Amino acid sequence: MKFRLVLVAFALVIATSPVLAKQKDPLLTVKELPQASLLFEENGKEVLSKGADKPMVPASTLKLLTALAAIDKLGLDFRFTTDFHVDAKQQLWVIGSGDPFLVSEELDLIAEALKQRGLRKVSNIVLDGSRYGRNLHVDGRTNTDNPYDAPISALAANFNTVAFKRSKAKGLYQAEPQTPLTRTARELAAIKLRGNGSNRVNLQTRERAETYFGELLAAKLKQAGIKVGNPDRILFAKWKGSSRPFYRHANSRNLSSLIKSMMASSSNFIANSLFITMADKGNGNALEMTRARAGMKRWIDRTFGWKNYAVLEGSGLSRGNKLSARQMLEVVKAFEPYRELLPRYKGKVRAKTGTLKGVSCYAGFVNRKGEWQPFCLLINQPVSGSLRKRVAEAMADSGKLPSICDSVKC
Asked: Which of 152, 228, 249, 261 has the fewest CB atoms within 10 Å, measured from its CB?
């Protein structure tokens, strides 16, 4: 027993040391990790397997599952829409649907479209973000100001983040030429930016996020030549009218483009916006996370029929998410028609990473002998940051794969 404990301790030292890990065959290193699962198929046959049925925290590799469900339920050509109404008081109402890609450039398109339809002046901007329930909570999201912790809201600009810069010569100024500084951005800069430099932070609360959206829209309307009565006075109410919208904006990006961007940037904001949108049954009820989870469970049960899994949100932020390598490999194989939407690494790997503290995952495809083959690696213990990609490179190598299980039970 003591000898076995020594071997385990030695394996952990190797796994957590970047120097030693680089000196070892990465596949053998994975074999020695007690909290690692690996499954790799070549031409439909399992050739590497370790702990493939053990439930693990998948981190952002879960975005593969969210993307696959969204493609199945919404279609690759799906586009989020946002409705705009003008009432008798010349107020511009904005009814949000949860579009996660209302970036500054998209707001430029909206302002120009409103102008083309004859809008010249608005007395107020009134926001209706009631499509999302008021108590919407993403499991795993914390109160940091990091962009990956941004709150979700039915009306959101720039993924509910804001960037700013300050220098001795220019003072406080916009970090992005397409995004003017609003009052909320300046208030955040006063709190978050000490001295000179730059920073991007999330807007932290849904109320602040929606206020910022209204302010930025007002700035874009002004740039387009549309007068706004008081651009700093953003109102909030639920639209109760029944008329057709003055303008319905379909985002310039379809679902395929959204997923590709989500995978490249590992956007938790886009992932959970999709996760919640899939709960929509078209009955007008506010969307809640409990309904989104139930909807995902029904889709998983119908599509895969899994047992012993947990999906609490769509981005991989939650440590309560649990999938086995075998389950994730099923997702990867089902994602094969959309492989080009995944980030590419060294021309040999198309896959999604997943990272949390003490969690390092990778799932997708490696190009082996000219053919794309599916793999999943889930490590739930501290390891060298480069290990997962070196494992993928080793599997892509055209040489013979060593068995990482040998005579032991994996």
From this structure: 261
